[in-house]
Amino acid sequence: MKRQHLFYVYIATSIVILAVLIWLTFATPPDSSQLLPAVLFGVLIVFTDTFGVRLPAGMASLLPMTAVAAYLVMGPVPTGWITLAGTLVYGLIRLRWAEPLELPRIEDGKAFTTILTANITIHTTSILVGGTAFQLLGGETPLKSVSLSQILPLTLLGLAYLLVNHLVISPAIATRGVEALRTYLRSLPNLLFYEGGPLIFAPLVALIYLRLGTVQFILFALFVVIASLITRGLAITSGRLERRVKELDSLQAVGQALSASLTLDKILEAIHTQVAALMPARNFYVALYDPET
């Protein structure tokens, strides 16, 4: 699939998801008692999506755990809506405050729409498909307890979420080229660790709300917020240090090239090699200034 086709594919799938949610809403209207948990989990979805950990292949966050916990509390329809709405709000936050959040800024409107609709497709489809698998194995919402009979449905819910998540994103990765695909595969263990590991705690999050109440859930959510901020801060600091080390190594390599040879072609080749290691420099040229001409 070509990259320009993704724009239409993800827009089409987002429209389909919206139509499915509207149909489900009319078929099984949500209860008014689900408004409060929808607001609480919706805010948590926006936060966890915004303050994720940046990896070479993309962002890893606690969004999967939050979405699965919301599903175990409210079921498919409210969770589908808040996941879609939360992802949309995150996209607008990224558009407005990308630089303060140290996120890649997207200037092109078409690219932004592609990323936004891709995220909506990824997260909303993942929770709806995972929830369907959960129900097919006898899982019920709201979650009442974690018994032996619930372990298999809960496990399949988490696995289906992760599987659909990465299946939907794989076409976008593939269109970026072989090197991007290799980077994604190298980062896959870390992505699964950051996003798959916390899924174990999703039933606990759901039971905290259902059994202990709103106040205790808000206190737990604050703990999640603090933990996310600390983890993200450590990841940003680590990334800055790693980049600084690469910059110093590149400067050293250029210095060695200068001391080893005064041939202009070799020096420029060394500069190009080191710059390409620091940034995706597809087009590279050096302009030499001649003061006489």
Verbal overview:
The model has no long low-confidence stretch (mean pLDDT 83). The radius of gyration is 23 Å and the shape is elongated. The protein has 293 residues and is an all-alpha fold. Helices cover 76% and strands 2% of the residues. A hairpin with a 2-residue loop joins strand 1 and strand 2 (58-60). The longest helix is centred in the last third of the chain and has 47 residues, at 214-260.
- The amount of beta strand, in percent, is under 5%
| CA-based gyration radius | 23 Å
Strand order of the largest sheet: 1-2
Taking the alpha carbons of the first and last residues, their distance comes to 49 Å
User: Quick check: average pLDDT?
Assistant: 83
Overall SS class: mainly alpha
Provide the low-confidence segments as ranges.
none
String of helices and strands: HHEEHHHHHHHH
| Amount of helix | over 70%
Query: Main beta sheet, described?
Result: 2 strands, antiparallel
Shape: elongated
Number of DSSP strands?
Answer: 2
Number of helices: 10
